[in-house]
Each structure stands twice: as structure tokens, then as C-alpha cells.
Amino acid sequence: MPNNTRRKKISLPYVDIPELRGKRTDPIRAKAAKDYLNGLVLDSTLTIRRITKDRY
């Protein structure tokens, strides 16, 4: 498997987080959720498998 260090945006199934932008924004909770997830994966090696293409 190639070593790919490019940054990618991904959607995690079954993970419901507050919106950062849009009509139903909750920026404080959204930033807290983003920071928490970043802390879980920062400096980690991840393997991501695409199961479907998201509509977004």
C-alpha cells in the first residue's frame, strides 16, 4: 500500500456532529467535536477504505 500523506476530507458514517456552517449551525459544539476527533487521529496512521461515494 502506498504511503499517501495528502490531506483528505472524509465523511464518517453514523457520526452525527453539529454543523459548522448553514442554517442549523452550532459552531461551539461543532468546533469541540472537530477538535476531539482531530485529537484522536493526530499523529496516527490511518487506513481509510471507501465504501461509497457521499453525496456531499
Structural class: mainly alpha
**Low-pLDDT sequence parts:** none
Q: Tell me what portion of residues adopts beta-strand conformation.
A: under 5%
Order of helices and strands: H
Helix content: 25-40%
The best one-word shape is globular
Distance between the termini: 27 Å
Compute the average pLDDT: 78
Largest sheet: none
Number of H- or I-type helical stretches = 1
- C-alpha-based Rg, rounded: 13 Å
Number of strands: 0
What does this molecule look like?
The chain is mostly helical. It is 27% helix and 0% strand. It is globular and about 35 Å long. The termini are far apart.
Brief digest:
The protein has one helix and no strands. By secondary structure, it is mainly alpha-helical. It is globular.
Helix and strand arrangement:
Elements: H1 27-41
What keywords describe this structure?
1 helix; 56 residues; mainly alpha; single chain
